[in-house]
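Holo prediction — adenosine-5'-diphosphate.
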Amino acid sequence: MPEFYWRELLERLRRLWRASLQLRTVTFSVLMSAAAISIIGVYMAVSVGANLFDSRIAQAQVTAERSNVAAQTRFDVVDQNVTADLESAMGLAAQAALQASSTPAGTQIAIVRSPDQLGPRVPVDVVSPGLDTALIISPELRSEVRTSTDRRLYWQSVSLPRTDGGIDPGLAFGSAIDVPNSGQYELYLVFNLSDTQQTLSFIQQTLWLGGAALVLLIGAVTYVVVRLVVGPVQMAAETSQRLAAGELQVRIPEHGDDVIATLARSFNGMAESMQKQITKLATLSQLQQRFVSDVSHELRTPLTTIRLAGDVLYDQRDNFPPTTARTAELLRDQVERFDLLLADLLEMSRYDAGAVDMDTEPTNLVRLAEDAVEAVTPLAESKGSELSIIAPGGYFEAEVDARRVRRILQNLLGNAIDHGEGRPIVLYVDSDANAVAIAVRDYGVGISPAAMERVFDRFWRADPSRQRSTGGTGLGLAISLEDAALHDGWLEVWSEPGEGSCFRLTIPRIRGQVLTGSPLELPPNEPEAMAP
Ligand code: ADP
């Protein structure tokens, strides 16, 4: 579960990263400024630290030299043979050395006798309380001091333990002192650098805090700047999406005279002229639809009269000379065709006007298929085509408008008979939990690939001259496609010239459901014995 959660989170972040230009720009600028500020910060911290310690060392060195001179002077003026004087000179020398070092409190001193010296061991060593010479001052420094001949100053950095357990940085300076009659002593001054360290820490802390604040500021400034620039672009993108979705009246607000305002103005200009054009076309198309619908309606009445008159003539054709009789037959055929065409036109104009209602009820599709087959059987027989239904078990009930589905089937079957070359025609019906499908398969002339793209177009026929004889209007498949779409269904075609065609209708079993697939293949897998 947690792993799934992480993956989900990562995926969401990845999407956010790809989708947000603002996020990417702010992240880049924060990262880059953080890197630059870190480099500058480290450089400054290091150089300030080095400078601070260098000047502190130089200062301590001067101090230590002065202390050495002060201490040595004390011994130089004392009477060498009086031990008590020497003892007190030692104390005074230590005091003088400390005084000479005008350093802050915390400086510690040690005057210790070098080992292996001749003469009596007077005076005794002086060591500041708390200063452990053996621990703090390294044997190397001691031996350097001890073996020096010219009272030179030697130094080393040391770590000074604090009472609270911590460690302070420090400097230890050592130099030799000559005590009359007692040989060589070593003077050590230990400076505590904790104040310098504190100053440095403070400077570093200020640097880091300042750097972090600067990075945050840069992030915030970038955010605001990008927002200023991206905001209008985002708005333009959203507006164009809404325009594309059909909200033709949306516009981008225009402020000021900058480049963004120019973009908004030209975008709005484009939207304006598009809206005008589309409205014009829509009005035109409405006018045309109205015209078609009106003409079809207007033609109905005279056509009915013509048909009645034609029927009278047709019924009396036996009394006419042969040419007149043939004319009466032709008249009847063509009037029938005219009637069909008018009915189709009216139906089409109803679709165009969006004025169609569905009358759905749970319907058994196999029963419907049988009805449709029965209706076209006389026509099929006249053409020599044998009709059969293949319907393996399934959920054949579906919520459909039976009249429309029957019309689709009759149209598909009519086409299959017209173009089936007298070969068998098979109607497949199948279904699954989500959809029902009916496929009409013929083994006739088939449709060329170029023609396949146009079969559903209005008034389109592959071979108009042939069509004329069989009475098609060229609107059949266009109406069937509209009927299928009304059911949220699909009407698809497969065809190979010379091998026949297959039209497959797929409809969701429950009205309003979205189709994801069809229960039938296109063309359906035919049983072994089926192929002609
Ligand atoms: P029509 O009224 O002419 O049949 P349709 O819209 O039903 O109009 O069909 C358009 C054209 O598609 C037909 O004229 C025919 O050329 C082609 N067509 C339709 N069904 C088939 C089929 N089963 N086999 C070959 N061609 C077909």
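READOUT: The radius of gyration is 53 Å.
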